[in-house]
User: Fold this.
Amino acid sequence: GAVVSQHPSRVICKSGTSVKIECRSLDFQATTMFWYRQFPKKSLMLMATSNEGSKATYEQGVEKDKFLINHASLTLSTLTVTSAHPEDSSFYICSASRVGGRLADTQYFGPGTRLTVL
Amino acid sequence: LAKTTQPISMDSYEGQEVNITCSHNNIATNDYITWYQQFPSQGPRFIIQGYKTKVTNEVASLFIPADRKSSTLSLPRVSLSDTAVYYCLVGTQGGKLIFGQGTELSVKP
Assistant:
């Protein structure tokens, strides 16, 4: 159990276009999902926390108007990179925190989406 | 949020036991310790989680001393496929996780 999927796995787009990335928890409900980006040979950087039915909370330095996050249901969160530019090229990874009563909910990560902006 | 410190890299040989230690001096009372494994171009994979003493599962063991200011991930008899980056994180329920630099483990034949 605890499978998280992402779609697409990789996308190439032209500069100025918008790209939507979907993150789904397949076999559990997730009240909270997280979005990360990762540059080559670097660690994961948390971009935002997405809560079902409410606005996302963005980390300092992350432009909320550029990285639009929607968490419409307990199993789906989307990240839209608006007006993408080459510097937005990166590996985007989502994670989902399982609904439950334990002290520490484990985060389960998706396989990631490789975005290349030409 | 508790900050973690790990060695940047480690080398090992197939069949050896590998121990990766993580320091988390300002861990909070409610924080759990979780270890993830990441292969290139893949999302991190959960390995093990613990609060105190020792936890063991089918792939690893986690040792946590009484003061909880550090933890050690133990991988028994590593193979080439264990070559990956290993991250130690501390966090609470539903809370965000801040990734440190991780430890790049290289297993050689």
Notes: Strands of chain B lie at 9-13, 18-23, 32-38, 45-50, 53-56, 61-64, 70-75, 84-91, 103-108.
